[in-house]
Write a structure and sequence with these properties.
Layout: E1 4-8, H1 12-23, E2 27-31, H2 35-42, H3 53-58, E3 71-74, H4 77-83, E4 86-89, H5 105-114, E5 122-126, H6 134-145, E6 152-156, H7 166-171, E7 176-180, H8 183-192, H9 194-199, E8 203-206, H10 208-239, H11 243-251, H12 272-285, H13 294-316, E9 326-330, H14 345-355, E10 359-363, H15 368-374, E11 379-380, H16 384-388, E12 393-396, H17 401-404, H18 408-412, E13 419-422, H19 429-434, E14 438-441
Parallel strand pairs: 1-2, 1-4, 2-3, 4-5, 5-6, 7-8, 9-10, 9-12, 10-11, 12-13, 13-14
Antiparallel strand pairs: 6-7
Helix pairs in contact: 10-12, 10-13, 13-14
């Protein structure tokens, strides 16, 4: 008999996972405690921008003409408990207010709400990013609260989704990591992921704590690599070097590699910053804080990039204050192909300049609505051309393809001054200079 799957939490991770499970041929029930979100998903609409997700969703949501009907949504934990053989927990684990530590309240609430309705054998699978040690504690909590007792098992299956590539990463993962306490959990997850396993995706089985450490370790390593090249950008600024050429040269070393070596204004989003800090906090609780003290500097380098971009903008405007100056900001999201502005370096820079008296106008292809909610006092434009109109300086802060394809001559006709600062080292400097612009990028003081 085919497995039935529930997905608890239908945000970015959960909505993607639910649609992907339906694509893989399973009957899927998605659950969320926010009725408005469920109503939106039932219409085949997604509450965030993610390339390909809405199309995938509409192929399977019950009630949509031409769909497979394999995907439904509910707000009832009772219905979810009765329906599912495998329950994926995909709720958020934000940073605690005023602390580095992870807020586990959403995960714990999901477990507590689901457990009383597990009256038959089932597998509960955590996908949320949690502090190491959480799975073992939650397994005990689950066994104690579920009527089926020990027949309800727990597995941990961390996600490795890249925003902008989430559908691809779910359907064709570069690895599947599972933390299990017994053979039954492994067998069921091999059945769930049979299609990607047949395609050659590695299936790595381990214990609970190691599986929890995989995600936080991976994110910490990526953050370290990004901050390393940004630290080299600081040195290049001081030594009159060129960080782009430096990155190119060291990237040819296969032990280092070229990915994540583009210097800029740093990382943001809902994962790397908070996961880095939660990892440090948990290491401290375990008495291993000295092992991760270097991550404090990684975080510090990252945050310095934002301030440095503000000062570079001030320098470009003559070194005085921002009062009376018009600043155009191209980009609001923390990365392209997303509408996510959580901890966005671009929006942070725009906000700092605005708070120091600058007249800031922002344009982003997908993040405008979310940016307005975070910074309603900034100016917003409907196009890049409108954003730069009358600007004394233009800041390129999110590397959308649309910005790389802008015509410098066309923009040059509407700005007050042809000055552009490339906060992502992604524009063609020669092209902009040929059109009469003063071009400056981070870590390249004379390039």
């Amino acid at each position: 008999m085919a497995l039935k799957i529930t997905v608890i939490g239908t945000g970015y991770l959960g909505a993607t996972h639910a649609a992907a499970m339906a694509e893989l041929g399973f009957e899927v029930l998605g659950l969320d405690v926010v009725p408005e979100k469920i109503e939106m998903l039932q219409r085949g609409e997604v509450p965030m921008y993610e390339p390909g997700l809405e199309e995938l969703l509409r192929r399977h949501v019950a009630g949509i003409e031409g769909s497979s009907g394999r995907l439904r949504f509910t707000t009832s934990y009772e219905e979810a408990g009765a329906f599912g053989d495998v329950h994926f927990i995909c709720v958020n684990t934000p940073q605690k207010h005023g602390e580095y530590a992870c807020d586990m309240s959403y995960v714990e609430s999901a477990f507590d709400a689901l457990a009383p309705h597990l009256t038959r054998p089932a597998l509960v699978v955590g996908k949320s990013t949690v502090p190491v040690g959480s799975a073992a504690r939650l397994a005990e909590r689950l066994a104690a609260a579920a009527p089926a007792g020990a027949a309800v098992e727990l597995a941990w299956n961390p996600e490795f989704l890249r925003e902008g590539f989430a559908v691809q990463d779910t359907l064709h993962p570069d690895r599947i990591v599972v933390g299990v306490a017994g053979e039954r959990g492994e067998e069921l997850l091999r059945e769930v992921y049979a299609t990607p396993l047949a395609e050659g995706s590695p299936f790595i089985v381990m214990d609970y704590p190691t599986s929890e450490l995989v995600k936080t370790s991976a994110n910490s390593f990526l953050a370290t690599k990004i901050s390393f090249i940004n630290a080299m950008a600081e040195v290049c600024e001081a030594a009159n070097g060129d960080v782009v050429k430096l990155a190119e040269a060291i990237g040819h070393d296969e032990r280092i590699g070229k990915k994540f070596l583009r210097a800029g204004i740093g990382f943001g989003g809902g994962c790397l910053p908070k996961d880095l800090r939660a990892f440090m906090a948990r290491a401290g609780e375990l008495g291993a804080d000295q092992a991760l003290t270097f991550l404090r500097e990684i975080d510090s380098i990252n945050m310095r990039r934002r301030g440095h971009m503000v000062e570079l903008t001030r320098e470009a405007l003559g070194g005085g204050g921002f009062l009376g100056k018009r600043v155009a900001v191209l980009g609001a999201t923390f990365k392209p192909d997303s509408d996510d502005v959580r901890d966005s370096p671009a929006l942070n820079v725009a906000g700092q300049i605005h708070l120091q008296g600058g007249q800031v106008t922002v344009y982003d292809p997908k993040g405008m609505e979310n940016a307005r909610r975070v910074f309603p006092t900034l100016g917003y434009a409907d196009t890049a051309l409108d954003a730069v109109r009358g600007a004394d300086v233009v800041l390129h802060l999110t590397e959308w393809r649309e910005f790389r394809e802008l015509d410098p001559a066309t923009l040059g006709d509407v700005v007050a001054e042809r000055r552009i600062l490339d906060g992502r080292n992604a524009l063609d400097a020669a092209l902009w200079r040929k059109a009469g612009w003063t071009y400056r990028a981070l870590g390249r003081p004379s390039a």
